[in-house]
TrEMBL record:
Transmembrane segments: none
Alphabetized InterPro entries for the sequence: Diverse_substr_monoxygenases, Luciferase-like_dom, Luciferase-like_sf
UniProt cross-references to PANTHER family, sorted A to Z: ALKANESULFONATE MONOOXYGENASE-RELATED, C2H2 FINGER DOMAIN TRANSCRIPTION FACTOR (EUROFUNG)-RELATED
Keywords annotated in UniProt: Flavoprotein, FMN, Monooxygenase, Oxidoreductase
Protein name according to UniProt: LLM class flavin-dependent oxidoreductase
Originating organism: Actinomadura rugatobispora
Pfam families in the record: Bac_luciferase
Residue ranges of domain Luciferase-like in the record: 21-264
Keyword check for Flavoprotein: yes
Keyword Flavoprotein: yes
Origin: domain of life: Bacteria
Amino acid sequence: MTRPLHLAIDLDGDGAHPAAWRHSGRPPGAVFTGSALRATVTEAERAGFALVTFDDGPLPPSGGPNAAGRLEAGTRAAFAATVTGRIGLAPTLHATTTEPFHTATQLASLDHASRGRAAWIVGAAADPDAFATIGAEPPAPEALRREVLDVVEVSRLLWDSWEDDAVIRDAASGRYLDADKVHHVDFEGATFTVKGPLITPRPPQGQVVVLAPDTLGLGGRADIALVAAPDPGAIEERAGRARETGVPLVFAEIEVVLGATAAERAALLDEDTPWPDGGGLRFTGTAEELTRLLSSLADVVDGVRLRPAVLAADLPVLAGAVLPALAAAGLHRPPEPGATLRAALGLPRPANRFAAAQAGPRNEVTAR
Protein backbone atom coordinates (compact mmCIF):
# COMPACT_ATOMS: atom_id res chain seq x y z
CA MET A 1 0.00 0.00 0.00
CA THR A 2 1.33 3.43 -0.96
CA ARG A 3 2.18 5.60 2.04
CA PRO A 4 1.31 9.32 2.23
CA LEU A 5 4.00 11.66 0.97
CA HIS A 6 5.68 14.06 3.35
CA LEU A 7 5.44 17.47 1.71
CA ALA A 8 7.90 20.30 2.23
CA ILE A 9 7.98 23.74 0.63
CA ASP A 10 10.76 26.29 0.28
CA LEU A 11 9.76 29.82 1.29
CA ASP A 12 12.88 31.74 0.37
CA GLY A 13 12.33 35.30 -0.80
CA ASP A 14 9.43 35.80 -3.20
CA GLY A 15 9.98 32.42 -4.83
CA ALA A 16 12.58 30.16 -6.39
CA HIS A 17 12.72 31.96 -9.75
CA PRO A 18 15.30 34.79 -9.80
CA ALA A 19 12.67 37.15 -11.27
CA ALA A 20 10.04 36.24 -8.66
CA TRP A 21 10.35 39.62 -6.96
CA ARG A 22 9.17 41.30 -10.16
CA HIS A 23 5.95 39.25 -10.12
CA SER A 24 5.18 39.08 -6.39
CA GLY A 25 2.60 41.87 -6.44
CA ARG A 26 4.30 43.72 -3.59
CA PRO A 27 7.20 46.16 -3.18
CA PRO A 28 10.58 44.38 -3.35
CA GLY A 29 11.51 45.42 0.19
CA ALA A 30 8.42 43.77 1.65
CA VAL A 31 10.21 40.41 1.64
CA PHE A 32 12.30 41.63 4.59
CA THR A 33 9.29 42.22 6.82
CA GLY A 34 7.90 39.96 9.51
CA SER A 35 4.40 40.33 8.08
CA ALA A 36 5.48 38.86 4.73
CA LEU A 37 7.12 35.86 6.38
CA ARG A 38 4.15 35.37 8.71
CA ALA A 39 1.76 35.36 5.75
CA THR A 40 3.60 32.69 3.76
CA VAL A 41 4.54 30.38 6.62
CA THR A 42 1.05 30.40 8.14
CA GLU A 43 -0.48 29.75 4.70
CA ALA A 44 1.86 26.77 4.29
CA GLU A 45 0.89 25.49 7.75
CA ARG A 46 -2.83 25.84 7.07
CA ALA A 47 -2.36 23.96 3.80
CA GLY A 48 -0.92 21.01 5.74
CA PHE A 49 2.74 21.01 4.71
CA ALA A 50 4.92 19.00 7.07
CA LEU A 51 7.93 21.22 6.66
CA VAL A 52 8.98 24.64 5.40
CA THR A 53 12.56 25.39 4.40
CA PHE A 54 14.48 28.64 4.28
CA ASP A 55 17.34 28.80 1.80
CA ASP A 56 20.50 30.74 2.60
CA GLY A 57 24.11 31.20 1.64
CA PRO A 58 27.22 33.23 2.44
CA LEU A 59 26.53 35.37 -0.67
CA PRO A 60 23.40 37.11 -2.00
CA PRO A 61 21.11 34.73 -3.89
CA SER A 62 21.43 36.66 -7.16
CA GLY A 63 23.29 39.48 -8.81
CA GLY A 64 23.07 42.02 -11.61
CA PRO A 65 19.63 43.59 -12.07
CA ASN A 66 18.17 40.95 -9.72
CA ALA A 67 20.63 41.58 -6.91
CA ALA A 68 18.83 40.70 -3.70
CA GLY A 69 19.49 40.30 -0.03
CA ARG A 70 17.80 38.00 2.43
CA LEU A 71 17.39 37.74 6.16
CA GLU A 72 19.50 35.00 7.72
CA ALA A 73 17.68 31.66 7.53
CA GLY A 74 18.03 30.71 11.18
CA THR A 75 16.56 34.05 12.22
CA ARG A 76 13.61 33.57 9.84
CA ALA A 77 12.99 30.11 11.24
CA ALA A 78 13.12 31.41 14.82
CA PHE A 79 10.53 34.06 13.96
CA ALA A 80 8.36 31.48 12.23
CA ALA A 81 8.43 29.38 15.42
CA THR A 82 6.50 32.13 17.19
CA VAL A 83 3.65 32.27 14.66
CA THR A 84 3.18 28.55 13.92
CA GLY A 85 2.34 25.46 15.94
CA ARG A 86 2.53 22.35 13.74
CA ILE A 87 4.83 22.83 10.76
CA GLY A 88 8.52 21.88 10.76
CA LEU A 89 11.09 24.64 10.28
CA ALA A 90 14.30 23.96 8.36
CA PRO A 91 16.86 26.72 7.79
CA THR A 92 19.89 26.16 5.57
CA LEU A 93 23.06 26.64 7.63
CA HIS A 94 26.36 26.22 5.85
CA ALA A 95 28.73 23.77 7.47
CA THR A 96 31.76 25.15 5.67
CA THR A 97 31.44 28.84 6.60
CA THR A 98 29.85 28.78 10.07
CA GLU A 99 31.41 27.82 13.41
CA PRO A 100 30.17 24.29 14.26
CA PHE A 101 29.50 25.08 17.92
CA HIS A 102 27.34 28.07 16.96
CA THR A 103 25.48 26.02 14.34
CA ALA A 104 24.61 23.30 16.87
CA THR A 105 23.56 25.89 19.46
CA GLN A 106 21.35 27.81 17.02
CA LEU A 107 19.57 24.66 15.91
CA ALA A 108 19.07 23.34 19.45
CA SER A 109 17.64 26.72 20.43
CA LEU A 110 15.27 26.60 17.44
CA ASP A 111 14.06 23.17 18.53
CA HIS A 112 13.31 24.50 22.01
CA ALA A 113 11.60 27.62 20.63
CA SER A 114 9.42 25.57 18.29
CA ARG A 115 8.72 22.78 20.82
CA GLY A 116 10.39 20.12 18.73
CA ARG A 117 9.87 21.24 15.13
CA ALA A 118 13.42 22.14 14.08
CA ALA A 119 15.34 20.76 11.15
CA TRP A 120 18.60 21.62 9.42
CA ILE A 121 19.40 21.67 5.73
CA VAL A 122 23.15 21.13 5.58
CA GLY A 123 24.72 23.65 3.24
CA ALA A 124 28.24 23.25 1.87
CA ALA A 125 29.29 26.40 0.06
CA ALA A 126 32.45 25.61 -1.87
CA ASP A 127 33.22 28.48 -4.26
CA PRO A 128 36.05 30.98 -3.66
CA ASP A 129 33.71 33.96 -3.17
CA ALA A 130 31.85 32.16 -0.39
CA PHE A 131 35.08 31.29 1.43
CA ALA A 132 36.33 34.85 0.96
CA THR A 133 33.57 35.92 3.37
CA ILE A 134 35.52 34.17 6.15
CA GLY A 135 38.99 35.02 4.78
CA ALA A 136 39.80 31.51 3.64
CA GLU A 137 40.57 29.53 0.51
CA PRO A 138 38.15 26.77 -0.52
CA PRO A 139 39.44 23.30 0.38
CA ALA A 140 39.86 20.45 -2.09
CA PRO A 141 36.64 18.46 -2.68
CA GLU A 142 37.58 15.56 -0.41
CA ALA A 143 38.71 17.91 2.36
CA LEU A 144 35.46 19.85 2.03
CA ARG A 145 33.44 16.64 2.30
CA ARG A 146 35.44 15.64 5.39
CA GLU A 147 34.71 19.00 7.00
CA VAL A 148 30.98 18.69 6.34
CA LEU A 149 30.96 15.20 7.84
CA ASP A 150 32.85 16.49 10.90
CA VAL A 151 30.42 19.39 11.39
CA VAL A 152 27.39 17.10 11.26
CA GLU A 153 29.01 14.58 13.61
CA VAL A 154 30.05 17.17 16.19
CA SER A 155 26.60 18.79 16.05
CA ARG A 156 25.01 15.44 16.87
CA LEU A 157 27.50 14.92 19.70
CA LEU A 158 26.77 18.38 21.10
CA TRP A 159 23.01 17.78 21.01
CA ASP A 160 23.67 14.69 23.14
CA SER A 161 26.09 16.46 25.51
CA TRP A 162 23.18 17.12 27.88
CA GLU A 163 21.24 14.03 28.92
CA ASP A 164 17.46 14.37 28.82
CA ASP A 165 17.17 14.59 32.60
CA ALA A 166 20.24 16.75 33.21
CA VAL A 167 18.08 19.75 34.19
CA ILE A 168 16.51 18.98 37.57
CA ARG A 169 15.40 22.44 38.83
CA ASP A 170 15.39 21.33 42.46
CA ALA A 171 14.42 24.47 44.41
CA ALA A 172 14.83 22.75 47.78
CA SER A 173 18.52 22.00 47.23
CA GLY A 174 19.19 24.97 44.95
CA ARG A 175 20.42 22.66 42.16
CA TYR A 176 19.47 23.55 38.60
CA LEU A 177 21.21 20.65 36.87
CA ASP A 178 22.99 17.39 37.51
CA ALA A 179 26.54 18.14 36.36
CA ASP A 180 27.28 14.43 35.98
CA LYS A 181 24.74 14.35 33.15
CA VAL A 182 26.38 17.15 31.15
CA HIS A 183 29.30 15.85 29.10
CA HIS A 184 32.38 17.20 27.37
CA VAL A 185 32.58 16.20 23.73
CA ASP A 186 36.34 16.58 23.11
CA PHE A 187 35.95 16.39 19.34
CA GLU A 188 38.99 16.77 17.10
CA GLY A 189 38.21 17.09 13.40
CA ALA A 190 40.47 17.72 10.43
CA THR A 191 40.07 21.51 10.62
CA PHE A 192 38.61 22.29 14.06
CA THR A 193 38.23 21.05 17.61
CA VAL A 194 35.26 21.35 19.97
CA LYS A 195 35.43 20.78 23.71
CA GLY A 196 31.78 21.15 24.60
CA PRO A 197 29.37 20.72 26.23
CA LEU A 198 26.67 22.69 24.43
CA ILE A 199 25.33 25.75 26.27
CA THR A 200 21.77 24.62 25.49
CA PRO A 201 19.99 21.57 26.99
CA ARG A 202 19.26 18.64 24.72
CA PRO A 203 16.72 19.50 22.00
CA PRO A 204 13.14 18.28 22.59
CA GLN A 205 13.51 15.93 19.60
CA GLY A 206 16.76 14.58 21.03
CA GLN A 207 18.37 15.23 17.66
CA VAL A 208 17.31 17.96 15.25
CA VAL A 209 16.16 16.48 11.91
CA VAL A 210 19.06 16.69 9.43
CA LEU A 211 18.42 17.08 5.69
CA ALA A 212 21.24 17.04 3.15
CA PRO A 213 21.63 16.80 -0.62
CA ASP A 214 22.53 13.24 -1.54
CA THR A 215 25.58 14.63 -3.37
CA LEU A 216 27.21 15.46 -0.01
CA GLY A 217 27.51 11.75 0.74
CA LEU A 218 26.33 11.94 4.35
CA GLY A 219 24.43 8.66 4.09
CA GLY A 220 22.95 7.60 7.42
CA ARG A 221 24.40 10.65 9.15
CA ALA A 222 21.42 12.51 7.67
CA ASP A 223 17.77 11.79 8.40
CA ILE A 224 16.63 12.89 4.94
CA ALA A 225 18.48 12.83 1.61
CA LEU A 226 17.40 15.50 -0.87
CA VAL A 227 17.54 14.19 -4.43
CA ALA A 228 17.59 16.51 -7.43
CA ALA A 229 17.21 14.77 -10.80
CA PRO A 230 15.64 15.88 -14.09
CA ASP A 231 12.89 13.26 -14.48
CA PRO A 232 10.99 10.63 -12.45
CA GLY A 233 13.17 7.79 -13.73
CA ALA A 234 16.36 9.54 -12.66
CA ILE A 235 14.77 10.39 -9.31
CA GLU A 236 13.97 6.72 -8.73
CA GLU A 237 17.54 5.71 -9.56
CA ARG A 238 19.07 8.34 -7.30
CA ALA A 239 16.62 7.55 -4.50
CA GLY A 240 17.59 3.89 -4.66
CA ARG A 241 21.26 4.73 -4.35
CA ALA A 242 20.56 7.07 -1.45
CA ARG A 243 18.66 4.35 0.43
CA GLU A 244 21.64 2.01 0.05
CA THR A 245 23.70 4.45 2.15
CA GLY A 246 21.38 3.97 5.13
CA VAL A 247 19.52 7.29 5.08
CA PRO A 248 16.02 6.80 6.60
CA LEU A 249 14.04 9.06 4.23
CA VAL A 250 14.46 10.38 0.68
CA PHE A 251 12.82 13.56 -0.63
CA ALA A 252 12.71 14.62 -4.29
CA GLU A 253 13.34 18.25 -5.22
CA ILE A 254 10.80 19.75 -7.66
CA GLU A 255 10.57 23.32 -8.98
CA VAL A 256 7.03 24.29 -9.96
CA VAL A 257 5.20 26.85 -12.08
CA LEU A 258 1.47 26.22 -11.73
CA GLY A 259 -1.81 27.16 -13.34
CA ALA A 260 -3.69 27.07 -16.63
CA THR A 261 -1.27 29.67 -18.01
CA ALA A 262 1.84 28.16 -16.43
CA ALA A 263 3.80 27.97 -19.69
CA GLU A 264 3.10 31.65 -20.42
CA ARG A 265 4.03 32.61 -16.87
CA ALA A 266 7.28 30.67 -17.11
CA ALA A 267 8.13 32.40 -20.39
CA LEU A 268 7.46 35.83 -18.90
CA LEU A 269 9.63 35.06 -15.89
CA ASP A 270 12.46 33.81 -18.08
CA GLU A 271 12.13 36.85 -20.30
CA ASP A 272 13.02 38.97 -17.29
CA THR A 273 15.78 36.64 -16.07
CA PRO A 274 16.49 33.07 -17.22
CA TRP A 275 16.01 30.47 -14.48
CA PRO A 276 19.31 28.58 -14.13
CA ASP A 277 19.09 24.81 -14.41
CA GLY A 278 19.72 23.38 -10.96
CA GLY A 279 19.70 19.79 -12.17
CA GLY A 280 16.34 18.93 -10.61
CA LEU A 281 12.89 18.26 -12.01
CA ARG A 282 11.16 21.45 -13.17
CA PHE A 283 7.39 21.10 -13.53
CA THR A 284 5.26 23.54 -15.53
CA GLY A 285 1.55 22.77 -15.73
CA THR A 286 -1.79 22.57 -13.96
CA ALA A 287 -2.58 21.51 -10.41
CA GLU A 288 -4.15 18.31 -11.72
CA GLU A 289 -0.99 17.44 -13.68
CA LEU A 290 1.23 18.09 -10.66
CA THR A 291 -1.05 15.94 -8.50
CA ARG A 292 -0.62 13.06 -10.96
CA LEU A 293 3.15 13.51 -10.96
CA LEU A 294 3.36 13.52 -7.16
CA SER A 295 1.07 10.49 -6.98
CA SER A 296 3.42 8.63 -9.31
CA LEU A 297 6.36 9.45 -7.04
CA ALA A 298 4.68 8.15 -3.88
CA ASP A 299 6.13 4.66 -4.44
CA VAL A 300 9.57 6.08 -5.26
CA VAL A 301 10.34 8.62 -2.51
CA ASP A 302 9.14 9.35 1.01
CA GLY A 303 8.54 13.02 0.40
CA VAL A 304 8.93 15.98 -1.91
CA ARG A 305 10.31 19.46 -1.39
CA LEU A 306 8.48 21.87 -3.68
CA ARG A 307 10.16 25.08 -4.81
CA PRO A 308 7.45 27.41 -6.20
CA ALA A 309 8.63 29.82 -8.88
CA VAL A 310 6.59 32.70 -7.41
CA LEU A 311 5.10 32.18 -3.97
CA ALA A 312 2.29 34.69 -4.49
CA ALA A 313 1.05 32.78 -7.54
CA ASP A 314 1.98 29.16 -6.85
CA LEU A 315 1.49 28.69 -3.10
CA PRO A 316 -2.29 29.36 -3.28
CA VAL A 317 -2.62 26.72 -6.02
CA LEU A 318 -0.69 24.20 -3.96
CA ALA A 319 -2.75 25.00 -0.87
CA GLY A 320 -6.12 25.14 -2.58
CA ALA A 321 -5.87 22.35 -5.14
CA VAL A 322 -2.81 20.10 -5.02
CA LEU A 323 -2.65 19.21 -1.32
CA PRO A 324 -6.43 18.68 -0.98
CA ALA A 325 -6.37 16.36 -4.01
CA LEU A 326 -3.50 14.34 -2.55
CA ALA A 327 -5.30 14.16 0.80
CA ALA A 328 -8.46 12.90 -0.89
CA ALA A 329 -6.40 10.16 -2.54
CA GLY A 330 -4.83 9.17 0.80
CA LEU A 331 -1.42 10.45 -0.31
CA HIS A 332 -1.12 13.36 2.09
CA ARG A 333 -1.69 13.79 5.80
CA PRO A 334 -0.95 17.05 7.64
CA PRO A 335 1.03 16.90 10.88
CA GLU A 336 -0.92 16.50 14.11
CA PRO A 337 -1.09 19.45 16.51
CA GLY A 338 1.55 19.14 19.21
CA ALA A 339 3.58 16.52 17.34
CA THR A 340 7.32 16.95 16.95
CA LEU A 341 8.72 17.01 13.45
CA ARG A 342 10.29 13.59 14.03
CA ALA A 343 6.91 12.18 14.97
CA ALA A 344 5.28 13.78 11.93
CA LEU A 345 7.92 12.20 9.67
CA GLY A 346 7.81 8.81 11.39
CA LEU A 347 11.38 9.12 12.64
CA PRO A 348 12.21 7.73 16.10
CA ARG A 349 13.57 9.93 18.86
CA PRO A 350 17.23 8.85 19.23
CA ALA A 351 18.57 7.65 22.56
CA ASN A 352 21.27 9.81 24.13
CA ARG A 353 24.59 8.12 23.42
CA PHE A 354 26.20 9.34 26.64
CA ALA A 355 23.33 8.13 28.81
CA ALA A 356 23.61 4.65 27.31
CA ALA A 357 27.26 4.10 28.18
CA GLN A 358 30.10 6.03 29.78
CA ALA A 359 33.54 5.78 28.13
CA GLY A 360 36.07 7.15 30.57
CA PRO A 361 35.76 9.32 33.69
CA ARG A 362 32.37 10.80 34.59
CA ASN A 363 31.75 14.10 32.77
CA GLU A 364 34.73 13.51 30.46
CA VAL A 365 33.46 11.46 27.53
CA THR A 366 35.81 11.30 24.53
CA ALA A 367 34.29 11.29 21.05
CA ARG A 368 37.48 10.44 19.21
